[in-house]
Amino acid sequence: MEIPFSESYKIKMVEPLRKTTREQREKWIKEAKYNLFNLRSDQVFIDLLTDSGTGAMSDRQWSAIMMGDESYAGARSFFELKDIIKKILGFPYFLPTHQGRAAENVLFSALVKAGDIVPGNSHFDTTKGHIEFRKAKAVDCTIDEAFHTELEHPFKGNIDLDKLEKVLKDYPKEKIPFICVTVTCNSSGGQPVSIENLRDVYVLAQKYGVPTMFDSARFAENAYFIKMREPEYANWSIKEIVAEMYKYADMMTMSSKKDGLVNMGGFIAMRDSELYRSCSTFNIMFEGFVTYGGMAGRDMSALAVGLNESTEFDYLETRIKQVEYLGNKLIEYGVPVQRPIGGHAVFVDAKKVLCNVPKEQFQAQTLGIELYLEAGIRGVEIGALLADRDPVTRENRYPELELLRLAIPRRVYTNNHMDVIAAALKNVFDRRDKITKGLEIEWEAPIMRHFTVELKKL
Ligand code: F0G
After folding, report:
1. β-pair type (179-182, 377-378)
2. For a substitution probing ligand 1, which of 36, 47, 52 has the most ligand atoms within 8 Å of its CB?
3. Does 11 reside within a domain?
4. Which range (65-74, 314-323, 380-389) has the least confidence?
């Protein structure tokens, strides 16, 4: 008999979960103004809101916490992190920040000005927010295949080189501070970018004299997909693939809360000493001194260990196989999901599930509410609410994809939990024709509204 696959870790500490009734959930979600971010975690049974900062640290990481050096300047923990960033990602300069968006804030303060254009592959919402906040524009150059959820393509995070070249031709290089490549591409479904594409983007960028920046939150998952899907790299180790990926980046921002395997943290890394200098000033202003930048020493030590662990094949195989397990169950039940299954999450195509709900009534959010009511499972909307209004016309933007993201925290849930999620979603899917009404906005913030929006059931 073939030995089945199993996790590459065992469990040393557990945290109880609380089951709730449908009546309780109906009351709580109404009080939360139909915004899943407003729920208390005690009101949630399985929390798939995000894979960001929600993972479980290893015994090695907890040991590193005890060894952290809390010196204000020149802490040993800083140098541990600096060494591992150099070793794994190849960058000589780095600045710690308290999380990914803080890294964006610091780097973009140094580089992005009003009227600039930042081409990329479906920029993450905080990235786009930091660009638009500076009155610059993010231009999406993702390949068209990414927007057809049921179309199989190994690298749906890839940048369309023609779209990119058009931007590079249409604007002078002074207006393009960098190209932003998100690995894996969260907004298009946790989809990877191939080495071939990273290399082609870099070559094109060099031709036009524009630097390349990687938004690196899930860089290790991207490397796993390269190993599995880009034949040339099948026999490379994950660390070798990561090193190859970063040959094609001039700088990076990192949300360490994902593939850093820590609960809080981020950083910027770069090759250019001048850029390091100009970012250092903003880091000191917004984050903290250059050797801690918003992170405790102990957290930098845990992150150094986390970066090492997340770039090991066995860890990544366990991680991605669990996400695939959930995705395949949903496919088996006929639920339309983004294919192939992404690295950190399964993305349900809400447009195809709730066909009777008009897009103006927020289909993916409506599906998220239904799933919560069904079994206390919290996903997150990646659709029209998140897409915000156009900064100029103030009209609602309706993105091509209306997705409900079920993000899987790292090393947290078992496949039994995945079975519960799949069954709950199947139940919602089976009664989809009866769901004809969605939601209406009662209040919204002028930017990044989805976090705090207040909604009403129609
Ligand atoms: N870039 C990407 C691709 C992200 O997915 C995120 C966060 C960030 C940048 C910002 O990092 O949260 O540390 O400030 N994504 C989380 C998510 C919030 O749920 O996907 P942060």
Report:
1. unpaired
2. 52
3. no
4. 380-389
In a domain, 425, yes or no: yes
321 assigned to some structural domain = yes
Do 212 and 306 share a domain, yes or no?
Answer: yes
247 confidence band (pLDDT: 50, 70, 90) = very high
Q: Where are the beta strands (DSSP E) in 165-265?
A: 179-182, 212-215, 251-255
- Residue 101, ligand 1, Cβ within 6 A: yes
Q: State the chain's mean pLDDT as an integer.
A: 97
Helix or strand or coil: residue 79? helix
Which protein residue has the closest C-alpha to ligand 1 atom 20?
Answer: 50
Distance CA 110, CA 275 (A): 8
Asked if 113 and 229 sit in the same domain, the reply is yes
Helix (H) or strand (E) holding 425: helix 415-430
- Confidence band, pLDDT 50/70/90 cuts, at residue 125: confident
Contact indicator for 157, 193 with CB cutoff of 8 Å: yes
pTM: 0.95
Question: In the chain, helix, strand, coil percent, each to 5?
Answer: 45, 15, 40
- pLDDT reading at 119 higher than 90: yes
Q: Nearest C-alpha to atom 8 of ligand 1 is from which residue?
A: 100
**Full domain range(s) for residue 157:** 59-310
Write down the pLDDT at residue 242: 98
Burial call 146-178: b when 16+ CB within 10 Å, e when fewer: bbebeeebebbbbbbbebbeebbeebeeebbbb
293 conformational bin, left if phi > 0, alpha if psi -120 to 50, beta if neither = left
Helix-helix angle 313-332:297-310, to 10 degrees: 70
Contact 186 CB / ligand 1 (< 6 Å)? yes
Last residue of a domain, one of 268, 292, 310: 310
pLDDT in tens, 147-160: 888 899 999 999 99
Number of domains observed in the structure of the chain: 2
321 lies in the same domain as 304? no
Which residue lies with its CA nearest to atom 16 of ligand 1?
52
Same domain? 302 vs 220 = yes
- In order of 124, 342, 384, the CA distances from 153 in angstroms are 21, 11, 24
Quick one: pLDDT band at residue 188, thresholds 50, 70, 90?
Answer: confident
Q: What CATH code is carried by the domain that includes residue 402?
A: 3.90.1150.10
Residue 210 belongs to a domain with what CATH number? 3.40.640.10
Point out the residues that are catalytic.
72, 124-125, 215, 217, 258, 450
